[in-house]
Amino acid sequence: MMMIRKHPGILRGAPALLRLGRGASPSVSKITRYITLIGLFAGFALVPMPAGAEEPVAGSALLGNGIAASAWVPHSHARNTMVPTRQASAPSEEPAATAQGMRPFTPYRNGAVDKYIDLFGRKWRKATENGYARAGRYIPMIRRILAEEGVPEEFAFLPGVESNFNPQARSWAGAAGLWQFTAPTGRLFGLRVWWPWYDERLDPEKSTRAAARLLAYLYDRYESWELALAAYNCGEARVNVALASASARREAHNYWELALPTETRNYVPAFLAMVELYGNPKKHGLDKVAQETFRVTEVVEIRKAISLESVARRISMPTEELIELNPAWVRRMVPNFKRGQGRLHLPPGQGAVLMASLAKAPYVHKEKWVVHRVQRGDTLSRIANAYGVGLNDLEMLNGFHRHSFIYPGQKLLVPQTRNDS
Predict the structure, then answer these.
(1) Looking at residue 387, what is its pLDDT?
(2) How many domains, in total, are found in the chain?
């Protein structure tokens, strides 16, 4: 979602894994680099798809009839280079499926797709299994929203390409979340990004709604899922230039023959490969991978300042589990907002418990902090020692974990006192 530079996710060179950035695991980053190199030297995406040569992909319990994916293809900058020619900034509030039904899609295979099937199933097996395991937590919610927006259910696996189903994945290009939105495009499709506190790109449900509407918009514009995915990956402007160039040469508007960036040429075949793998888990040995379970939560709207640590104590829940349910709260704290209410995801039935606790013993917000601008040579430990605060407190306030990196010029909040409860 920005310019067509090389991404950090699957690729740090390839697609989904291409944009994992700071949140990516070593295996994911590696996969990303490999995919880009493969695209450059093997040239699979350049293989045209002869008419009649398509091989339908068998249906599956998870897949319907669209495109899927799992963590690693040349990734998407598209969402940030969007230059909509129609009003994309105000998507209809009425689900698209009601107005025009499900947009059709038929998976297929060719030589380029088969190469990625082999890579995902063998060379990058561990990363594939990790993404498949995490996908179980999000797939039911994603499929429901896609159906409401008229997008084929196979697209429920696209986060595998974008983030390997890691809702906190970030890229150096500024993309974040399951669907790897950049802030400008996220806002364009209704996501609230209130830095440094709250970022709905990291909210799985909110970002899924935005992604479904973006995908629907792109398909309606190009009337082709291949071109829609290409635009999702590299941006509408790039796709439009490739189409104009093809028209000037009187060539067909065929994704497989367009002059698109290498990353984008690899994006669709890798995506289709994941459709095959996720759609036939038994055939590819993924049925032996235990998937995480879908979590039902209730949403509580809250305006008062409170830390997630205090919320967790009040509802007798481990803090880390609550943080996991609320990745959008970047600083692990709900501040006093004037811009609207914040959303908290809690286990079913715990909303009433929290409200009763706050009514009985209101939260007193005592926390104060100073802003520290990171200097060359700084580490989190050195900063914590310099200010006399605990390393865990510094990490919690800034939404960091033990593997997080800081860089010169970055602004950190340093706590000065503690909250009461």
Answers:
(1) 83
(2) 3
Distance CA 281, CA 60 (A): 8
Residue 300's beta-bridge partner residues?
344
Burial-class residue 104 by CB neighbours within 10 Å (0-12, 13-18, 19+): exposed
* Catalytic residue status for 226: no
At a CB cut-off of 8 Å and minimum separation 6, what does 244 contact? none
Domain with residue 51: its CATH number is 1.10.530.10
Angle, alpha carbons 341-214-145 (nearest 5°) = 65
| Buried/exposed code over 65-99 (b: 16+ C-beta within 10 A; e: otherwise) | bbbbbbbbbbbbbbbbbbeeeeebeebeeebbbee
Are 307 and 332 in contact by the 8 Å Cβ rule? The answer is yes
b/e map of 156-182 (b: 16 or more CB within 10 Å)?
Answer: bbbbbbbbbbbbbbbbebbbbbbbbbb
Q: Is 373 helix (H, G, I), strand (E, B) or coil?
A: strand
pLDDT number for residue 337: 62
Residue 287: pLDDT band by 50, 70, 90 thresholds? very high
Arithmetic mean of pLDDT, 28-42: 39
**What is the distance of C-alpha 356 from the center of its chain?**
35
* Residue 222 and residue 325 in one domain: no
Terminal-to-terminal C-alpha distance of the chain: 40
Q: Which residues contact 357 (CB under 8 A, 6 or more apart)?
A: 314, 315
Angle formed at CA 108 by CA 282 and CA 129, multiple of 5 degrees: 35
User: Which helix (H) or strand (E) is 184 found in, with range?
Assistant: helix 183-188
Say yes or no: 305 and 351 in one domain.
yes
Which of 149, 153, 154, 162 is labelled catalytic? 162
**Whole-prediction pTM:** 0.69
